[in-house]
Design goal:
Blueprint lengths: L1 H5 L5 H9 L2 H4 L22 H6 L5 H10 L13 E5 L5 E5 L9 H12 L17 H31 L1 E3 L8 H10 L3 E7 L9 E5 L5 E3 L3 E7 L5 E2 L8 H10 L3 E8 L9 E4 L6 E2 L4 E7 L4 E3 L8 H10 L3 E7 L9 E5 L4 E3 L3 E7 L4 E3 L8 H10 L3 E6 L9 E5 L5 E3 L3 E6 L1
Parallel strand pairs: 4-7, 9-12, 14-17, 19-22
Antiparallel strand pairs: 1-2, 3-6, 5-7, 8-11, 10-12, 13-16, 15-17, 18-21, 20-22
Length: 430
Amino acid sequence: IEALSRGIMDDPALTARFAARSPEDTEPNHPDDDLDDNPPTVLEEPKTAAAVASGAPGFAASTSGASKSGPSLSGPTKKQPVQSRKQTPQGRTKRTSAGREPATRTSMERDVAQVRRRNPRPDHVARHRPTPPAGPETLRRRRLVTLVMLIILTIGGTGAWWMLDGRYVTTPTMAGMARADAEAAAQSLGLELDTSLDFSETVPAGVVISTEPGAGADVLRGGQVSMVVSQGPERFAMPRVIGMSKDDAAKMLAQANLAVGTVKEAWHEELAPGLVIQTSADSGTPMRRGAEIDLTLSKGPRPIQVPNQTGQPVDQAKTALENAGFVVVVKTGHSPSVPEGHVASQNPSNGTAHRGRTITIVRSLGPSMVKVPDVRALPTQEATDQLTRAGFKVETKHGDNFLNLGYAQRTDPDAGQEAPEGSVITLFVI
């Protein structure tokens, strides 16, 4: 029965019997199917000659019912049975047909119902035959559909790969490479480079400092990568500021991107106080940006001790003063105490002075010669005063034939002769 219902067994008698019955007759009855308040019209089951001749089980009751009404074998005829109702134990009315017994399920119907409960299928499945093999046209259509689907899947997969990964390349490692090598690496991946230059204290000139995006980052094919190439250390030439004031030197250093460092002072024999006499870096030296330059400012010449050369031979005194850094000017004059050719006086003669200052010395001509005044017959005191005013020193002695009169008798040297100024004149009195 199961094989017949699935259409995989070919029994002519059973097939004709199932084909002649309507879906309502072949559907197994449910216990509640016979309960209805509105009785339907019942069609008499069609009989076929093959079914009658075969004498298949399950058809006896139907055949006997049909013989009473006299149907022909040529085809089905409609009957309008008189409907009657029979009270069921549950209080519901069960339909019956006049002149025939209530429908009773045969063993075959129960088997079919049991099979269908286990394998529920649409009613038309039982009437289908196995699907015949596909023809050449159908196979060709199937191959074409399969090919189209493969093409669609290939295009879709390729597009998805392109959108997610295929359109990107990995940025190569270019930092630390020479510029030419980095450009070749980018060109091999189809990348464009935006190159800029910068100074670096650690990366040699011509070598890549960095890239953006960095190495290993994803970038679109044909995209742009920014690359910074080193120019080497940034250096600025040290300007010449010797002889400038502190403010002028600071401005000059600022223009060279340098700064003023420590400032100190020192003695200088040539440059005036406040001028730059020394820097921590020589002019023209390459310097880093912002480097600090130490300055030394002049305090002027260093004061030195003036040596006193009074009484020294003039030539010797002049040499000593010049070696000390002074300028020596020599003059001449008489000195009653300093021999001729010696330094009679010096200005300044002591203390300190700056190197290069002028020192004046007087070359002694010896004492000056003064004419001895005539003081004869003058009182002793008056004669002494005249000699003193003339620049002499006076020594009094008793003259010849001393009478103690208190008058000058003569002088030595005699009156009218010349004697060195400051020399001693002997006055003889009587």
